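Input chain follows. Return structure tokens only.
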Amino acid sequence: MEAYDVVIAGGGPAGLAMAAPLAGAGLAVLVCERNAEIGLPVRTSGGSWPEDLRALGLPDRLWHPISRLSFESQHSRCTIDWGGPVGCSLDVTATWRHLADLAAAAGATIENGTLVRLERTGALTLRHGGESRHVRCRLAVDATGTNALLARQSRVHEGFRRVGVGYEQELSAPAFGQDEAVILVGGLAPSGYAWAFPRGGTRVRVGVGLIQPDTNLNPRELYAPVERALADRLAGAELLELHSGRIPSQEAPQRLTGDGLMVVGDSGGHSNPLLGEGIRHVIVAARRAAPVAIAALGTPGVVPRERLRAWERAGRRTRGRSWGLAMRANRYVAGMDDADWDRAVETLGRLPAELATPILRGDILSAPLLAGALRRGPSSAWRVLRPFVMGGRVVGPADLA
């Protein structure tokens, strides 16, 4: 029977980012990706922030810079103008493959088209095509994303009932400005939002994301109205690719380990729940998980949960101090109607970029955001911070005054 120190289920950013340091430490690492190629099919738009991506060691060639971000509701519009490339849209496939190259160069084995099933502690079944084989490992890592396959199979946690579900088309749209991204909120995407992210050249990604079961609508069915709302900017557009994906949108699991098992990335709820940004967050989580795994593997045999407990604490801290408040805001805005969004966009439009940007990044407890909100006076501060304080509460007329 094949034997590895570590088998990682999932060849996305979390699994690949964890594989490189593990293999670099001299461990025998196998990464199993269920799809036929790394980075395909595309599951996400990849909106992010160049400053953070550079801090992770990712090269500039992997993203397209964005200098402005516009929000549009039914009757209101505002633009955050950074005056330079503060935001970006990732080339998701190229980023995944860059991380895969780093993992392979460190000595990890990457096997595509392979499904992983946990049979028992330290024993897995790998399915490739019509064939199955059994392997042993001292540690399995669940990096399967929202599916959380190994976590559910081992009952480390029960999975995610509330998820963000997205549908997106990548278009060639010569009329779309390549330095500005657009977010559409309100009736076009109830319990979610729609977007248009430039990708460089003439490419743009246009999509809809909804939170289920907050709504039983299908984002695919809402795509056509979004495209019509952007008709002038999408004149002459041609379809290039179709994308779809899911992301957790509920309180994160507290338990992240079992005997011979660690849960990392979206499987462990490490994405930011406010706008659904996940890529940089799950890379950070994976790189923080790796030293815990290396230390736990320092003694022979399958790793018991007791030696992985440090990841229970570190994994929760990885989400950051603002994670809980961002989740409250997620639930708050999911219940907003068109009139609420009109007011919210007007409020956002009155904020300076240095105050609006931490909100978009999900850095709710950052000093610039809190200090900036308080400087604007109690009434204005309440308008900015209300969603993070009142998440999950029923919103009444007095709250929206």
